[in-house]
Design a protein that fits this description.
10% of the residues lie in helices and 31% in strands. With 147 residues, it is mostly beta strands. It has one domain: Immunoglobulin-like, CATH 2.60.40.790. A hairpin with a 2-residue loop joins strand 3 and strand 4. InterPro entries: A-crystallin/Hsp20_dom, CS_dom, HSP20-like_chaperone, Small_HSP.
Length: 147
């Protein structure tokens, strides 16, 4: 009979991870057929050795004043407004599914980032934000003088 080490807090660790996951996801309001919530853009976040990159699907932006990017206490917030000019008169509209209005999404970043040097580009409905990581403070050894 093999001996299995007893880990009394194993189940608590699983519960903590599930609670963290629950409170870092947005509560959906209205879902589209593709799994995206109206007013909350989808965001992918990955990191490299020197930066954290966020890729956001936000189709319909017309000018850079329509989107705001804020980084505060390691939380990235992307917000703005999608304004579409009325392409078709309302009485001729049979179906309207494209999102119009305000959007906002806040996510916790996996690493600390510097607010200086952040670069954002918007192309083909995708906003890409490159945030340089904060360099860890280098430890300096202090010599103690003995008298």
């Amino acid at each position: 009979m093999p001996l299995i080490p007893y880990e009394p807090f194993h189940h608590l660790e699983n519960m903590r991870r599930e609670l963290d996951r629950f409170f870092t996801t947005d509560f959906p309001t209205v879902r589209t057929g593709f799994g995206q919530t109206f007013g909350t853009p989808s965001i992918d976040i990955h990191e490299t050795e020197h930066e954290v990159v966020a890729t956001c699907d936000i189709p319909g932006l017309e000018k850079k004043e329509d989107v705001n990017i804020d980084i505060d206490n390691n939380i990235l917030t992307v917000s703005g407004t999608i304004n579409r000019m009325s392409e078709v008169k309302e009485e001729h509209m049979h179906r309207q599914e494209r999102f119009v209005g305000r959007f906002q999404r806040s996510v916790t970043l996996p690493s600390r980032v510097a607010s200086e040097g952040v670069k954002a580009t918007y192309k083909n409905g995708v906003l890409e934000i490159h945030m340089p990581k904060l360099q860890a403070d280098t430890k300096n050894r202090i010599d103690v003088e003995f008298h």
